[in-house]
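Quick note —
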Amino acid sequence: MGSREMEGDRMVDAAQPDESSVAALRVAAQALKEAIDGHLAVLTAGTDPSAERGAVLRALASYDDALTSVTAAPEPARTGGVLSVLTRTDHHVADFEQLVEAGRSAYRAIQPDAGEDEVRAEVPDVSSALYEILHVNEDEVPFPFPAAKPIAGMVWFLSTREAMPVDLHDSPFGVAAEVAGNLLYAHRLIYAPPGVHED
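Predicted structure written out below.
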C-alpha cells in the first residue's frame, strides 16, 4: 500500500513504484557498476579505454531511463491533443565531400541516364546532396546515414498546444521550450563515445 502525504489540507495516497520498475532499476544499477569497474580496470592497466568508456555511457543512459520509470510522477488525465515527436541524431562526418558524392549516387539512382556533367551540376554541394539522399529514400532519413557515423540520438515525446507551423521559415522546434510539464517520454541512444570515431 502507498504512503500517505499531505496535499493542501487533505491526505492523499503517494504512488509507490511497481516491483518490475524497481527490479529493472537494480539490473541497470548492477550493469552500470560492472561497466565502471571494467573501465577502471582498463585505465589502471594502461590500455585504451575507449570501448569501456562507451559501455559506461550506454549503461548510464539505461540507468537514467530505469530511474525515470521509478521516480516518474503519475500522469494527469488526458483527453486529446497534439503529440509532438522531436528527434535528434548526431553524426560524425569525416569528409563532407564524401557526403556530396553520396548525394550524387542518390541522384544517379533516380536518374540512371544522367551524364556526369548533369550529376555534378544538379548536386554541386552538401545542401543539394542532402535533398537527393532524402529523395531517393522517399523523404525518410536513412539510418545509418550515408558517409556519416552515428554518435548519439535523442527522441522526445511532447504534449503540445498546437501543431507545427507549415511555413518552412517558422521553426518547428519552438515546442522544445515547453518541455516542463509536457514531456511524456524521452529516449536516449548512444552509438559511440563522444570524440571516438572509427574512420
